[in-house]
Specification:
Strand content: under 5%
Largest sheet: none
Distance between the termini: 14 Å
Number of strands: 0
Helix content: over 70%
Shape: elongated
Radius of gyration: 15 Å
Number of helices: 2
Structural class: mainly alpha
């Protein structure tokens, strides 16, 4: 389903993971701003960013592993 060529590069995988974590963190920060009235970096914002980062790495690893089989 996916072409694993971009996921062969460790640099691309890390850049993608950081980009996705930043994007999810920005959305969480904006949601925090809407809900509380102040844009604060809370534990939830950091947790969501970290989960996005780890999730991207896991999906990239699964795609790389599936393509090698």
């Amino acid at each position: 389903m996916f072409d694993a060529t971009p996921f062969r590069s460790t640099r691309f995988v890390l850049l993608g993971a950081f980009f996705l974590a930043g994007l999810f963190g920005l959305v969480a920060l904006m949601a925090e701003w809407v809900l509380t009235g102040k844009p604060r970096i809370t534990a939830d914002v950091i947790r969501l960013s970290g989960l996005a980062f780890v999730g991207f790495l896991l999906v990239a690893a699964l795609i790389r592993r599936h393509h090698h089989e």
